[in-house]
Amino acid sequence: MREAFHDQLDGIFADLSEICGQVEVAVREATKALMTGDVHTADQVIGNDKAIDAARERVDDTAFSLLSLQQPVAGDLRVIVSALRMATELERMGDLSVHVAKIARLRVPAVAVPDELRPTMQRMAETAEDMVRRVRDIIIERDVEAAIELGRDDEVMDQLRRRSFTELLSADWQHGVEAAVDVALLGRYYERIADHSVSVANRVVFVVTGDLPSRD
Amino acid sequence: MREAFHDQLDGIFADLSEICGQVEVAVREATKALMTGDVHTADQVIGNDKAIDAARERVDDTAFSLLSLQQPVAGDLRVIVSALRMATELERMGDLSVHVAKIARLRVPAVAVPDELRPTMQRMAETAEDMVRRVRDIIIERDVEAAIELGRDDEVMDQLRRRSFTELLSADWQHGVEAAVDVALLGRYYERIADHSVSVANRVVFVVTGDLPSRD
């Protein structure tokens, strides 16, 4: 029974890494839509979110059946509940990518991000995408070291967010209120994707070691 | 054993309604800080968030001990996992109140919301606070009807959010980029508090009926 339990648990983590791969595509494509004003790509991100939701529901179902059939004890129980929470957070990261795509879509054929903000916004997007990619590897490898490192690198996103505020609140901002609001909300969405990435990575640490790097 | 189980489950729901009461205070006081520029109130909201986090951890611990000791079957299992998710969402609503308080604090002794936006922002805040108050009653009474109604009323918040965008993107916006960014982010925070309220109410429906009003 213990062996069957761990096989099924491995199955859940394989599913989680797959969802994380779908989220990675969503973040990348939403950014592409944002930076190019490509409505087709934006629509794809929005349309593909259903698949992420469905994959999350499958993880839920598997986890519940595992809990019911195997009646795991305290430690294993916490591992499965962690997996449920990881699935919820990954789904949320997909939703945030959809929010980015929707801002891109609203501004078509223009581009939401003014030229002078593009370097900072591009770095925020790349940082978010990079964190999602690393989370995927962390889930696959159950890599505690990499997970702790990811938590430390979250500071990069905070710095970029502060820089974007400095830029859009500078006296020589020429792009009006709409672009400023777009940039502020986009920054918030990428920051939340980064936050969730750290949280998912922390749950991997918990699954492997039984302790969180910090309570979250 | 079944009776002990349901007593403990009632205890978890009592704790959840208490957390919801703390969140209601947080939303109300954060709004007060926002509308008056009162730094002391803002600091209180920020300081009190630790109590919400601690209360959430206690719910987690009780739920896990219930799962471990009682080994509930499928239906009861889903109820307890729902309670865990409700606790997570309530904690998140507390965090969002802190975000509102922090924007208020940043602008002290000024007030973040320009006069002409105050009616809309006040209505968003009141709508959020009202939803949190209703969620608390819904948790206490396990009131499925009220929960379904709450889901329908979420549309009010969407309308207010759209109105705030119309106002701040209007040609005669005189308050500059900083105020516009503040208003956009504040609107986002209140909207998320409303979203989580609906989600918590939906989980109550699930706990009582075994079905969600819609999958979330």
From TrEMBL, chains A, B:
Q: Name one GO cellular component term.
A: cytoplasm
The alphabetical list of record keywords is: Cytoplasm, Phosphate transport, Transport
Ranges for domain PhoU: 17-103, 122-204
Primary site of residence: cytoplasm
Superkingdom, according to UniProt? Bacteria
Q: Which Gene3D superfamilies match?
A: Phosphate transport system protein phou homolog 2, domain 2 (1.20.58.220)
Where found in the cell? Cytoplasm
Q: Which InterPro entries match?
A: PhoU, PhoU-like_sf, PhoU_dom
Pfam families hit by this protein: PhoU
UniProt GO BP: intracellular phosphate ion homeostasis; negative regulation of phosphate metabolic process; phosphate ion transport
Q: Sorted alphabetically, which PANTHER family does this protein's record hold?
A: PHOSPHATE-SPECIFIC TRANSPORT SYSTEM ACCESSORY PROTEIN PHOU
Report the family membership. Belongs to the PhoU family.
**Subunit-structure text:** Homodimer.
Q: What does this protein do?
A: Plays a role in the regulation of phosphate uptake.
Q: What is this protein called?
A: Phosphate-specific transport system accessory protein PhoU
